[in-house]
Protein 1
Amino acid sequence: MKHILVLLTLVLFASCSSDDTPKDYTSLNEEEIKAYITANNLTAQRSNSGLYYVIDEPGIGENPISTDRVKVSYKGYYTNGTVFDESDDEGISFFLQNVISGWAEGLTYFQEGGSGKLLIPSHLAYGSNDYNNIPGGSVLIFDIELVYVNYVTENDQQINSYLSANNLEAQKTDSGLYYIIDEPGDGAQVTLQDEVSLTYKGYFTNEEVFDESASSVNFNLATLIPGFAEGLTKFKEGGSGTLFIPSHLAYGNSAIGGLPAGSVLIFDVEVISVN
């Protein structure tokens, strides 16, 4: 798939140069971008790095930062209009630290759901090197839509799809946690300062089990992932139910102990005792 190679191989940039002294295209690229902006009646902003960008829709979600993972739908072309790369409508996902610097910077000017253009000079892309049929010194233009930032929106959709497919009704907290109370319990209410004894089974939305207690285990809520700790406070001693934990309340963008990055974690829990 060409688009993955085009966007995710900045690390190859330095190692692909020839013995020739690299040509500085900065001034030529600047003139080319300005001419394109004028010819197409665009209102563009210029950053200190030399990147130009056009915001058609700013979006209403969060702005990505350099460590974030994003999903983007895009079309890449030269100033002559020739398309060299294009995603499907769904877009592709990647981490900003793995893309060319013009992309990594440019996407931070949009919020989730935003769209516009990035006009990237070659020193923020592949420099003076030919790369993957992109000529050295090329200005790259991208029409982009920032579909998601991290996994928050996707996880919410995944949880709701799971609930719908299994005819379940869950409550949602302000943090994004979903939970179902089968038995509220009749003992002490669990708080974030408590230690609890419980049994649990953890599985993904495809119902593959990744962890399960053989018997009751003890946890201090302060040591648990935020979604698990918050979820347990919805129960009293003797209570049971299910927690649906989006990745931002679990392990986020990191793959941990066999759990893929961005995973929704589901736990069936029963609170045996409190403190």
Protein 2
Amino acid sequence: MIKYNEYYAKIKVHKDTLGEEESKWSFMIELREKQDLVKKLKIMKEELRQDLQNPEGNRMKQVQEDITKLKDKITTTKESIIEKTCFLEEENKTHEKLRKEIEVQNKRYGAILKRLHCQLNKLQSNRKQWQWNIQQLEKTAAELRKCIAMKD
């Protein structure tokens, strides 16, 4: 029994020193980290399973709150889209009215411009006529002066 205990103690010391050496290896450190991660994930899985089975669980409440928040956001964005489309339609109607008014004003001013051109042409032709009449009167006056000068 003593030999067995000595052998057992010797093997235990050997295992401990070997364990210490293995613990320094990088892949063993990584293995331990992954084992810890697996333990944490198992714990989280069990908590989630319990939350899902319980309709009053924290996760269910949180998910329901998230769903209501998303629904609220969707309704607010829909309302803002509707408001903006109405505003754009009103703006388009206003622009169309302004375009029509501009067309009417352009036609009106075009007609005024034509009338002014006609008046200008008429005045120019009257001026030419008066100049021609003045020239004719000057010719007649010159002829009459010649006649008077001859009689005298």
